[in-house]
Amino acid sequence: MSAPMNAEINVNEAMISVSDLANTVKRSLDASFANARRHEEPYRHWLLGDVFPMDVAAQLRHLPFSPPRLDGVSGKRELHNDKRHYFDATNNARFPQCGAVAEAFQSQEVIGVIRRRTGLDLSGTYVRLEYAQDVEGFWLEPHTDLGVKKFTMLIYLSDGPEQADLGTDIFRAPGDWATRTPFDHNSALIFVPGANSWHGLVRRPIHGVRKSVIMNYVTDGWLAREQLAYPTTPVRI
């Protein structure tokens, strides 16, 4: 059983509970990837459901992080770098569900699942997990994630039907909108970044806080090592 959401637990208890919880996350990810729906247009991507165990998704939805103040500025997440939160060493130790998710994505089991689904060899990359909280006035210009990001998974933590229209916008090219993903709780969009993997968030009303977990495997070229779950330990196959 996982510890309470805001619990501060000792190291030995954390090692046991996080390991057990990580195993349930691995099994959930395995099933979610197995049932992923592949789409080819405008570039290859997959839509997943039931990404995490139900209780883990609920706990992640209620992590006690304050959403950012935009002060009228948006379009790129890096414009508010000082207000962003990650599944980093501190948060993974503080919150068992964060540590379990990070451990699952670091594991050979999940790396193997992703390789079977996408054909992607992630050996030597690093786990980066961001806890994103988007508020009214937020938007994202179309971008590709091409470069040091080798895999992208956007995991949605919806707060109900009022947020149904807050999925990721997918473009054929900047200015050429193609489709929008559903913003269902505990669902996800995955893709392998490439020259045509344009995506963003067209500005529209945001009711409440639009929460998601942004999961990337990044290369050793990622400079902000403090954001990584395991800054000195790359994924190994």
Overall domain count: 1
Mean pLDDT: 92
Count of β-strands: 11
Number of helices: 5
Task: Predict the CATH topology.
Answer: Jelly Rolls
End-to-end CA span: 29 Å
* Sequence of strands across the biggest β-sheet: 1-2-9-6-11-4-3
Helix content: 25-40%
Kindly provide the radius of gyration, computed on alpha-carbon positions and rounded to a whole number of angstroms: 17 Å
Strand content: 15-25%
Spatial shape: globular
Sheet with the most strands, sense and barrel status:
7 strands, antiparallel
Identify the CATH architecture: Sandwich
Query: What string, H for helix and E for strand, traces the elements in order?
Result: HEEHEHHHEEEEEEEE
CATH class division: Mainly Beta
CATH-defined superfamily: q2cbj1_9rhob like domain
Low-confidence stretches: 1-15
List keywords for this structure.
237 residues, alpha+beta, Jelly Rolls, seven-stranded antiparallel beta sheet, four-stranded antiparallel beta sheet, disordered N terminus
Description of the structure:
The chain is of the alpha+beta class. It has one domain: Sandwich (Jelly Rolls), CATH 2.60.120.620. It has five helices and eleven strands. The strands form two sheets. Strands 1-2-9-6-11-4-3 form a seven-stranded antiparallel beta sheet, covered by helices on one side. A four-stranded antiparallel beta sheet has the order 5-10-7-8, with no helix packed on it. A hairpin with a 2-residue loop joins β7 (about 170-175) and β8 (about 175-180). It is globular and about 40 Å long. The two termini are about 30 Å apart.
